[in-house]
Specification:
Tyrosyl-Transfer RNA Synthetase; binds adenosine-5'-tetraphosphate; 3-stranded parallel β-sheet; 53% helix; Rossmann fold; mainly alpha
Length: 332
Amino acid sequence: HPRVFSGIQPTGDLHLGNYLGAIMNWVKMQETHECIFCIVDMHAITMKHDPKSLARATRELTAGLIASGVDPDKAILFHQSAVPMHGQLTWILDCVARIGWLDRMTQFKDKSGADKEGASAGLYVYPVLMAADILGYKATHVPVGEDQKQHLELARDIAEKFNRDFGVDLFPIPEPFIQGAATRVMSLRDGTAKMSKSDPSEMSRINMLDDGDTIMRKFKKAKTDADALPSEVAGLAARPEAANLVNIHAALSGQTAADVLREFGGQGFGVFKPALGELAVEKLAPIAERFRELKGDKKTLDGILHRGAQQANAIAEPILQEAKRAVGFLKG
Ligand code: AQP
């Protein structure tokens, strides 16, 4: 039966790319599907991190997700390290995945930078942990941004190989669910780089907690060409910065890019940017306000995560047992 799994790392502040590429879809899907949303703190330690910040970031992200509309009464919301399956299934899947497969992962190449030898082994097997996250719940649909497509394909390969190698039909092959008008939100400074928390320039991204003035300023200063907006989507083809702003508008206003161009085609950025800024402020300000109310309430947040972890564990534990049996481990 259909089951949705998706994860997000508690590293840095939520930005508009996370919201439009992932979280907005989570909020929609929780109305129609069984959903499991995971704060992937085990993924967050693959890079150098500070333990105190990680604990704070995990709570803050919980608050941020709830403020964005994730409802712990409709979806399971928990942190990864609280459910033992993630680590245990990863080991089994490490032995299924091939080194050649991992060598092709572009995110490792990007994140390990120049010093590949000095990167953690965890960063290298990161996609296998992600496969365990998904397969350990027998998830069928995984809403993600486009940047995660390659990892999802790897999870599919691992599921198929596991089923084939052990002659079982244990893991469903998960489908990526990449949807919305902004599946790849780009930097406001460079229309060819994705908006990301690790970009050193604050002007490159809209943070979910930016105040109204900051949002307006960032959009007004966003890099663009000097031409007016085209009246048709085809006219955006060689204009990555313009395309990005139009897609952001479309995603925030719940329209298509064509709709946005029907309204703004022929207008210059002097008109479009402030309109986009105002739309973003209107959508994001209530989220930021709810976030501020929630984020100090440690007890409530920890309670939500604890309950979510119990619910997640109840689903994952029997699946882990099936996987252990399939590879030939005796019952403990
Ligand atoms: N720019 C983006 N456009 C669309 N979707 C995006 N996502 C991230 N950036 C964009 C989606 O957000 C979800 C959570 O991703 P994550 O926790 O893995 O965050 P990330 O990819 O590490 O975020 P960053 O900002 O991109 O971090 P760095 O800078 O460390 O690489 C995922 O569904 C992702 O697709």
